[in-house]
Amino acid sequence: MTMPAKAIIPSSTNSEGKNPLFVKDCDDIFIQKSRSSNDDSGNSNPADGVRTSVYKHFESNMRVVMCRTSSPIYTLNIYVPTAAPNNKGLPHTLEHLVLCGSKRYPIRGYMDTLASYNYSEGTNAWTNKDHTCYTLDATAEDAVANVLPPFLDHVLNPLLSDDHFVTEVYHYDETGKEKGVVFSEMGSKENKEDILAYYHLNKLVYNSGATYSKYSGGKTYDIAKLTNKEIIDYHRKYYDANNVTVVLTGAFSDDFEEKYLQTIPADIVQSRGSDSRAPMDFSPPDNSHPRYETVRFPSSDASTGSFSFGWQGPKHGDPETNLALNIMLEYLAGTSSSPLNLRFVERSSPLASSIETYNYSNVTTMLNLVFNGVPYTCKDPANQLENDSKDPDLPHLFEERYFESLLIGEFKRLIDTQFDGGKHALEKAAKRLSDKMAAIIEEALGDALQGILYLDIVASHFSPESQGSKKLHIGSFTRQFDIIADLSKRPVEFWLSLLKKWLIDGTVYHVAMVPDTELGSKLELERKKIEQANAAKIVDKEAHAKYIKKAVDASILQVSEEVKKAMPTPDPTKTTILSHKQNLLVLDKAIGPVAAVQSINVDSGFTEAQIQIPIGNIPDDQRAYLTLFEELLMGTDILLPAGVLYDNDNTPLQAEKRVRYSEFESRISDLVASRYSHFGQRSDLFLCDWLDNSFVIQFKSQCKNYPLALRWMVQGLLFSEFTQDRILTCSQNILANIAEAKRDIGAIVINLDAHFIGVSRPGEPLANMRHMSFLAQEGVLKNVIEKAKNGKVDEVIAKLRDIQSVLIQATGGFIALSLPSSENPKPYVDTFAREWNMCYGKYAECNNAGVVSNANANAVAKGGSSPFPIRYDIMFPALTKPLLIHVPVSSLQTSRSLFSYKINASDCPTGRRSFDDELADLVSLDYFALKMLLALLARLDGPLNNAVRSKGYAYGGDIYIAGWSKRLCLELYGASDIIKAAGAVKQLFLNMHDNWDTIIGDTDMSLARSVIKYWYAIRQSTPARMLDQSISNSIHGFANADEYNTWYSTHVAAVKMSDMRRMFEKYLLSFTDTEYPMLRLLVTPSDVDVPTEFGPFERKTLEEISATYKTDY
Question: What DSSP string describes 650-700?
Answer without folding.
Answer: -SPPSS-EEE-HHHHHHHHHHHEEEEEEEEEE-SBTTB--EEEEEEEEEEE
